[in-house]
Amino acid sequence: MGPRIDEQKAAWASVAARHAGHRLALPGDAGFICQPRSCGAHCCRAFHVAVNGAEAARLAAAGAGPASRFLESEDGEPLALPLARPFVLARRGDGCVFLDADLACERYAARPAACRLYPHQVIFADRARGRTARLTAAAERRAIEDAIAGRAGLEATPLLLRHGECPGFTGPPLSAEDWADLLRETHALSLEADGREG
Asked: What pTM does this model have?
């Protein structure tokens, strides 16, 4: 059957004011193809990327060297913040330590979940309350599968969002299947990035 586009739009209208920097992504919208020269690799320059211990270990194993070379450090020791994702990728010049002169990521295959997510995210809209909802990971997955199947009456409507400043939405239009795959993939990465059940 496919997603109920009117329900997606109504759910987005109920929470859009709280997510002003984003746009709703629907089947038929342009797909994402990174265009770093169009924006000067804006995402790699504007955002500070928090990473967890497993991501730091993956980057080190991918040839990034010791953590003190790519994490914010002091006296050769990575700074650990009192957060779930305690480390922050270091900066070089005005961008991420891994941003090279050609505006490419030197450790693309091992990049953190936050980088793999960008420029998408998934939120769950509680239309009745006009705000986003936080569900269990299992409830979020059920809501996603219900939305993909076009079932009505969802506890919270999953919305696939795209960052409004990103110029990379130049690809072919998303089919309903592409949209469903992207929604599932983005949600799985969100769970990973949040350190929640996968």
From this structure: 0.86
